[in-house]
């Protein structure tokens, strides 16, 4: 990664589970936090891509013979993939908020059974129970 470019690790943006025995967090608050974290991740990754593009403009454009060219292309590809994943996560969060507003949050889309609270605590945007995940 070019110097000064932050890495966007999507795993670092998952909500931490509540301590054992603690009350389950408010799903709307958990979804809002996940949405904010995901938007921050997307902004950071967009900055990463901009830095990579800028570094590429300064580099030799012959990727086949430039050892840095292949690295920059790989880093951009990785960042682009992470942005796509984060946008999917953002859409999942928005869909979960819509289910919450409609009164369908916490029910499996496949079987209609309640999604266990522990799963929703870890994955607030979950659409399916573990059996149908």
Automatic annotation (TrEMBL):
Chain intervals annotated as zinc finger (dksA C4-type): 108-132
Residue span(s) of domain Zinc finger DksA/TraR C4-type: 103-131
UniProt key word Zinc-finger: yes
Entry-linked Pfam families: zf-dskA_traR
Keyword terms: Metal-binding, Zinc, Zinc-finger
Transmembrane segments: none
GO molecular function ontology, one term from the record: zinc ion binding
Ranges where the record places region Disordered: 1-27, 56-76
InterPro entries: Znf_DskA_TraR
Protein name according to UniProt: Molecular chaperone DnaK
Record organism: Clavibacter tessellarius
């Amino acid at each position: 990664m070019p110097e000064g470019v932050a890495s966007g690790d999507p795993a670092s943006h998952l909500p931490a589970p509540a301590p054992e025995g603690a009350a389950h967090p408010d799903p709307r608050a958990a979804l809002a936090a996940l949405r904010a974290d995901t938007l921050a991740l997307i902004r950071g990754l967009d900055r990463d891509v901009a830095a990579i593009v800028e570094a590429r403009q300064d580099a030799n454009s012959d990727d086949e013979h430039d050892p840095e060219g292949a690295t920059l292309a790989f880093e951009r590809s990785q960042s682009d993939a992470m942005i796509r994943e984060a946008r999917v996560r953002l859409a999942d969060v928005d869909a979960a908020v819509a289910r919450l507003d409609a009164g369908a949050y916490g029910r499996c889309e496949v079987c209609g059974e309640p999604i266990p609270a522990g799963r929703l605590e870890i994955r607030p945007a979950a659409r399916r129970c573990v059996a149908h995940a």
